[in-house]
Amino acid sequence: MGKTLLVARLAARDIRRHKAQAILLLLAITAAATTLVLGLALDGVTNQPYQQTRAATNGPDLVASYGVNILCPGKVPCLVSAVQVQADTSALTHLGGVTRYSGPYPVASVILRSRGLSVPVQAEGRGQAPASVDQPKLTSGSWVRPGGVVIERTLATALGVGVGDQVTLGGRQFTVAGIAVTAAAAPYPNCQDTDCLFTMRTSNNLSSLNVGLTWVTEADARAMASPQAPLSYVLNLKLKDPAAAPALASQFLSSLGGEGAGMGRGIDSINTWQDISSAAGQLVQDEQSVLQPGALLAVLLAVASVAVLAGGRMAERTRRVGLLKAVGSTPGLVAAVLVAENLALALLAAAAGLVIGWAAAPLITNPGAGLIGTAGAPSITLATIGLTVALALAVALASTLVPSIRAARSSTVSALADSPRPPRRRAALIALSARLPVPLLLGIRMAAGRMRRAVLGAASIAVTSAGIVALLTFRATVDHNLGPTAGQVGDPVITRDTQMLAVLTVVLIALAVLNAVCTAWATVLDYRRSSALARALGASPRQVSAGVAWAQVLPAVPGTLLGIPLGILLFKIASPGKMIIPPVWWLAAAVLATLAAVALLASIPAHIGTRRPAAEVLQSETA
Amino acid sequence: MQQEAVLALLAKEPAYGYQLRARLQQALGPAGDTMNAGQIYVTLSRLEKAGQVTCEREAGLPDRPDRKVYALTAVGRQRVAAWLADVSWPGPGLAEYHLKLIAAAAARLADPVTIIDAQRRELLRQLRDVQRAAMAEADGSEAGVLLEGIALRLQADLAWLEACEQYWTHHKEDGS
Amino acid sequence: MNDMHGGTCVLRAQGLRKEYGKNGGLVRAVNGVDLEVMAGETVAVMGPSGCGKSTLLYLMGGLDRPTAGEIWLGGKRLDQLSERGLSRLRRDAVGFVFQAFHLMDELTAVENVELPALLAGRAPRAARKKAAELLDRVGLADRARFLPTALSGGQRQRVAVARALVADPQVVLADEPTGNLDSAATVEVLRLFDRLHTAGQTLVIVTHDPRVAATADRMISMRDGAFTDQTRLQGGTTGRLGNLAGLEG
Lengths: 623, 176, 249
Prior knowledge:
The complex is a heterotrimer. Chain A is of the alpha+beta class. Chain A is built from 22 helices and twelve strands. Chain B folds into two domains: 1-84, Winged helix-like DNA-binding domain superfamily/Winged helix DNA-binding domain (Arc Repressor Mutant, subunit A), CATH 1.10.10.10; 111-176. Chain B has seven helices and three strands. In chain B, strands 1-3-2 form a three-stranded antiparallel β-sheet. The longest helix of chain B is centred in the last third of the chain and has 29 residues, at 142-170. Chains in contact: A-C, B-C. The B-C interface holds B 87-90, 117, 121-131, 133, 135, 146-147, 149-151, 153-155, 158-159, 162, 166, 169 and C 48, 190-191, 194, 210-211, 213-215, 219, 221, 223, 229, 231, 233-239, 241, 243-246.
């Protein structure tokens, strides 16, 4: 017991003495932990919002979309006779297991225009009375009326319209009567993944856009039909056994002779609530596919920062280790003290990361506006806690365990006599640097003397650079895919993804700044003696601080360049599919900006370091 | 017992024999273990014969050396002054030099620090001479190693003088 | 004005003061020092540890700024120069020798010596040539390509002296140059200083070793930040070497 207390006391005192470093270490691990928590929370987001919407709207178990044969060749789709439609309706409603149904509702395919934006939408014709299955729940305004249109919530947000605004549907003026959510179709823009059928054959521009969902009165819907855009019908079915929906759907289709035959008959799709639910959840998954590689990046960067910090602290610990051993501590005790400090910080950081992640998660997991409620305080499950703590510990241990053990095993005498490890000599670099201007001379010699630190710095820059390049690649790909964007509604998913990626990049950059400052500070400390000596021998303070800055910029160059292929690779992993490489000048600008930032961040501690009189440093150093 | 040391102890004021002995014992401490009781009286009687010290017997006290009163004569005083100013080296043994400083402080004849400084200057000059001589010798000459010995002793003496200076700067004796 | 060497005053300090801390914790490291060093002179400053002699030296070499007082080096006023001006001065007018040598461990002897010249912007080839000459002058021509870890203490300090000379400085300032050396190495370094003195180099040495002080023309005692004594050390000894060796006569 006494030993544990002793270890705790020594560790605590040490942390108190080096508060700044401890805080930086804490921040780095917290950032990593937070990102991990967010990533895991997203992973755990369940279908609950969809379930809530389903319950609130009496959501259907099966949704059939039919009445138009869109496969037939020619400029316009082929109509299906009214008799056929009735027969289909009857067949569907009489399927085994169907308890209730609503519809068939006529659906018109029109272009919605608002403030210069155009979206193809379905205008579903509804009555005033609430339907028994699928009555969309209003989140604002009122239900359909002649001349009034209710817009699905995500679409409304994407368009930026509210109740009372004027829009055009199919050339006619409508007022936005209300905004609602439904469980019968996935929120914009994923609606068409399930059942939003657009019958109008348009030029390529519009056909690549996502289809939205609106509701109007039945009369308005029928009025909007035209030969080019015939009406289709939608039928909502409720089953005795909702779980049986997929089986029932496939049974029905095969009874028709397959999907193709069905389409020939005008039956476009039979969607189960499971399909709709997953399409609704797709939004979240898309965000995940961005967040997770990003979280991985952030974690890597945090690890790099911590390693640099911890490695820097290790150098100063050597003498303390020697002292502890000289007064009788076993190597085990010594290692325990060193590790205990980092563990304490790591646990604190894990806790902080969990709290911040829990608070911030709702922002991330809000699965678009199209479903009621948020994903709920995403369960911080036991697994999340466990993983986060494990990560924090792993990060702390990994960067300190080896140096701790090495320090504990080293010879006491050499540890006591310690000065920081003398730099290794690299003759070629020394000879080369002699021919260069003074700041470069100093910078090259400093960097060459501490290769490990230079490599670590380059690695963390590479990670940041990769993140930025991934973002640029995403941007380039999206721009290309969307084509000319004037007058068109942004894909909310892509917008959200871009936002996510931007947030991640900000986190990455913050971490990278943190890392750069730590590296810079550690470098300045490492080179305290060389800098003081260089000043004593006649270098001006400006030359010396420039030299220290160069010592970090030089390794940052290969780091930044390495980040380019890394970033592209990262994007490819996160989002397989067509990828557009960003233009060269974007990449060049990113490289230059990163290097400039490194130079700036490096020069500040360097400048501060040169303010200390050389005499102080030289007098306090041993040979 | 060097005569000058005894003379110097009388410089402040006349003293009984036993008082002189006590003063010596206090100054020398354990280093006075080789001094036996009678030595100082032998020295005092020699000094009396040389006319540098007078000796009186107080009425009513036994005729023993420790009960007699001793005092400096003018000649004795002169001798003390010359002794204090002398910087020749090798100087007196450590005990005598130590007593010189004590006596100078007690009798307010001179500031011990001044005495020490003067001696140090002299020793430094001598050290310089020795070092020049040593550097002029070829490497590994016989004489060289002797000169090294001289230099090392001078160094040791200088180190002690510095310790004395430290002490006397902080201690102003106001008489025993 | 003493003109032992008939000459110009290379280094002059007046009313020099350096204080640290404040109020209760005020430490007067240098407390009102006046000093003049003439060209070609060797001056030794002796004193116990903590008396401020190293601080004084660092002030004179422009490595630290005084709290009060004036310093002139080669006619230029030091205490009013900017950091950049000071660095130029350190480069061209002052050579420093430290107790801890302060050589760069990853540079060979000749690379260490040429460094101040490179920092001053001299051509690499000229700097290398000068460095090699100086190493020869201090007797280490055959060790030019050795790393400091392969050199003995005395050899390292000699390299440091060569480095201090590479810019042909007006004065060489040495802070306890033999502090980390044993007896034999001390003699090496003293010989070197003696040769420099003969060649006319101005030297200011701070030391607590009397052997080092004894090589000087003038010795100054320092205590508690102030000078207490000054002595010219030439000649005038009363004793003879034989007496010192224990021979009667």
